[in-house]
Amino acid sequence: MILVLTGTTYAFNALVAAVDAIAPTLGERVVVQTGVSTVVPQHCGYFAFAPDLHRYIAEASLVISHGGAGSSYEILGLGKRLVSVENTAVNDSHQWDLLQRLDDDGYIVWCRDLGTLAACIAAARTRTFTPYAPPPCTIHLEIIRFLETTARGSMLTAPSGGAGGPKGPLPAAP
What we know:
Layout: E1 2-5, H1 13-22, E2 30-33, E3 45-47, H2 54-59, E4 62-66, H3 69-77, E5 81-85, H4 94-104, E6 109-110, H5 117-126, H6 139-157
Parallel strand pairs: 1-2, 1-4, 2-3, 4-5, 5-6
């Protein structure tokens, strides 16, 4: 099954229409998450929203998705082949920036023109992708550093020997 994700915030009618037009030639079932798009597929299964897309993504042999970060990283995290399409209805170019990086790193096939979608799908079916591994999460270390710095700063301004205040010299910085 090929799964198509349009996102939940912006309509992506162009993607729905392009996929629907080529669906009969793809040789497998196509299911489209239409979101707020108004195009109704004629050659694909479809649904607007689902509480969890994980099971759809897990079942898919290939995913075609808008360029949102959440969808992209969830799909890559599940080791799925991904064809990404920028939704130009999004106000800024954050999808373009993300897709450029993912494409440069070999994680996706970036379909820059929906007229080439069939060729992009064919390429994604045979390409050897760079396996995606999420970077290590260090936000907790940043929070600890921030809290320590903030606490150290408040200790410097606290009255000496008062209720709850430090007594004697301040501790050495780590």
